[in-house]
Amino acid sequence: MIALKFGGTSVANAENINKTINIVAEKSKSKKLAVVVSAFSGVTDLLILAGKSASAKDKNYKNIVAEIEKKHKEAIDELIPLSEQSEIIDVINSNINHLKTLLDGCYLLGELSNRTADIVAGFGELLSSQIIATALKQKVSNSSFKDSRELIKTDNNFGKASVNFTETNTLINNYFKNNNQQVTIFPGFIASSADGNTTTLGRGGSDYTAAIIAAAINAEVLEIWTDVNGMFTANPKIVKQAQPIETISYQEAMELSHFGAKVLYPPTIQPVLKDNIPILIKNTFEPEANGTLISNNPSSNNNPIKGISHIDKIALLTLEGSGMVGVSGSSKRLFEVLSIENINVIFITQASSEHSICIGILNSDAENAEKAINKAFELEIAQGKIDKCIVEKDLCIVALVGESMKNHQGISGKMFSTLGKNNVNIRAIAQGASERNISVVINEKDVKKALNTLHERFFEDNTKQLNLFVMGVGNVGEKFIDQINQQKKFLKENRRINVRVIALANSRKMVFDEDAINLKDWKTALDNGETANVESFISRVKELNLRNSIFVDITANYDVAGIYDQFLSKNIAVVTCNKIACSSEFNNYKNLKDLSRKYNAPFLFETNVGAGLPIIDTLKLLIASGDKVNRINAVLSGSLNFIFNNFSESYSFHDVVKEAGVQGFTEPDPKIDLSGVDVARKILILIRESGYQMDMEEIENNCFLPDECMKTTNNDDFFASLINHEAHFNKLLIEAKEKDSRIKFVASFNNGKAAVGLQFIPKESPFYNLEGKDNIVEFYTDRYVDQPLIIKGAGAGAAVTASGIFADIVRIGNV
Ligand code: ADP
Ligand code: ASP
Ligand code: MG
């Protein structure tokens, strides 16, 4: 024989019940079956609500009952031919009338006893099982219904009764001895006490009903049919990458379900374990999928971790004080109190000093527990030997489970560092003596991030997901998005980096998609987005609280440069091509660097100097390896280089500057480039990254623009002023010719002093042949004394800047 159980979703409506019936009918061809069914999905919740409403004198219970009645009658209509309906309709009517009478009583009395609550809650299974049994008869004539209450005997602990196995096993065995049906349908969840009261086995208890029957009849296998493809490596609703576990041991499955894997009600394993009856978890909606086999001898793979589970709505209670040290019996008293109050303890840690003991319970039990504990330790509290119990709510337990964890070192280290890197604060830690699980208590708001990062770390072959929030989709931004779109697959397959763009914004619109924006059609998504608002952009990024979040600033905006601290202090990395922050006041720059270090959030700005050229990264490596930068000479303006390389008798200064703008080499405001401010910012950033403290005012700017050009306040006036002063610029050209040299805008740092300005570069200088929009930097260091370390290449342009930003993203992915 085999025992099967179909859960709430598998019997949610006529369509699903037909799927269930097909599976049962097919299996019944070769085996005798004991089939346990749950209530229709959601019905138990409705019944509990109806009971509460009635006892609270809220007439809404009547609507709830009507809704329940309707659901079941609709199912009958769809499942059973009209001519066969009368008997089952009578059964349903009589059950519904009984339910109504009970609830009317609760309403009149204004109370709901635990005993009545169990009768009410049990109606869901009674209704569903009788309808399903009648519908099944159409396909399998040799089948019948049996009320589990006649066979499963419990104590009177309503809500979660304990089974009397001796009596129950005898009753079940006798029943099957005297009945020879091919299929018997049982309602799950309900049982009865010795004095005939209906009891229930705890929420989710239909799994347990099936296990009790499976054990009694020594079934070949216990099949739990549900709405997912087995027990997953993590809750598939929260971790999209979770995978079904093929095989798992009883103990591992028990730990996973104890720590919240709802797919299996924790007590289910215990009855089948002793007879080695395997449990197979299957999906009613994908019956061909393998599912998960829980048994004594699961096949092993190399991963010591089998799964990650979690329980939310947890409260942590801490009892501490010198009065607990060396005094035997404190913990015994603590647990006794909790047991008297019927409070389930999910998690325990005790410091080895015995100074404090910390327990995890459900939020909903916290107040009762607090009161009871403070009462029990009243005397010690009054004497100041023990502090009043401390309660923290809205926490969550996350547990790593795996039998062979004990044979592997460093798992807890990996777990803690993974959480730490993502700024998930661990409130308490416990490891079972069996080393089958390590569990931590964290804040509920971090649970999604924690589960996903841990899953990534332990199950996804080290693939790292990066979640980008991009502000600025102009020239560079557009190229950047194209490049990501192009490289996404390669990065995932070859570098194990999964880059996802979660948000895009420009000055008008913004769009968020937690499941990643489709980059093929990002423009439409952005156009259809909401009105841009920096404050709400920031709060959305924080609220989403995704792992490896990166804010990408592709603007040249002053205000945007001012929000980095809000990201870094939330462990959100910042990648920027906007130079404003790093060239602002030294204290601001330092604060950002400090926040980055403190919150473990990378702050990368390679494209601040030389676009995509690896200048800052190289500098960082020099410094990290103990070198010291003594002198820097550089041509750092791609746009000025382009301008002076092209400026000639036949190509006026004004026209060249215009062209540089068209090609995207200048800042949106070209005066920033031509006035030398942009170059000054760049050398300042290099100086700071070399470890020196300096501010903008300390850089000597030998500006070559006439005053009138400098005084203009908009681009049109600025360009007009360039025409007015054509003679001034032509003079520079003549001087260069006379000196047989070329004009370059050079930045230098030497002996603690920095300057920027035009220089006439002679032929023998490496700067002389700098073509197009190229940049060049010479670093003279303790190790590069006579011959500098030179970095040279294209230093401006949308594509190279975009690839520089991309490189920073990949750097974060490689950490
Ligand atoms: P049923 O009504 O069939 O008993 P449940 O809702 O009780 O189904 O359990 C199945 C659900 O358990 C899944 O839909 C899934 O959301 C949830 N779940 C939580 N953790 C896990 C896990 N580790 N593996 C599979 N499912 C899980
Ligand atoms: N119907 C019950 C519940 O919702 C039992 C079950 O479905 O397993 O808790
Ligand atoms: Mg269930």
From TrEMBL:
Keywords attached to this entry: Amino-acid biosynthesis, ATP-binding, Kinase, Lysine biosynthesis, Metal-binding, Methionine biosynthesis, Multifunctional enzyme, NAD, NADP, Nucleotide-binding, Oxidoreductase, Sodium, Threonine biosynthesis, Transferase
Q: What is its EC number?
A: 1.1.1.3, 2.7.2.4
Q: Which InterPro entries match?
A: AceGlu_kinase-like_sf, ACT-like_dom_sf, ACT_Aspartokinase, ACT_dom, AK-HD, Asp/Glu/Uridylate_kinase, Asp/hSer_DH_NAD-bd, Asp_kinase
The pathway this protein participates in, as annotated, is:
Amino-acid biosynthesis; L-lysine biosynthesis via DAP pathway; (S)-tetrahydrodipicolinate from L-aspartate: step 1/4; Amino-acid biosynthesis; L-threonine biosynthesis; L-threonine from L-aspartate: step 3/5; Amino-acid biosynthesis; L-threonine biosynthesis; L-threonine from L-aspartate: step 1/5; Amino-acid biosynthesis; L-methionine biosynthesis via de novo pathway; L-homoserine from L-aspartate: step 1/3
Residues annotated as domain ACT: 400-478
Which family does the record assign? In the C-terminal section; belongs to the homoserine dehydrogenase family. In the N-terminal section; belongs to the aspartokinase family.
* Protein purpose: Bifunctional aspartate kinase and homoserine dehydrogenase that catalyzes the first and the third steps toward the synthesis of lysine, methionine and threonine from aspartate.
PANTHER family, alphabetized:
HOMOSERINE DEHYDROGENASE, PTHR43070
Q: What is this protein called?
A: Bifunctional aspartate kinase/homoserine dehydrogenase I
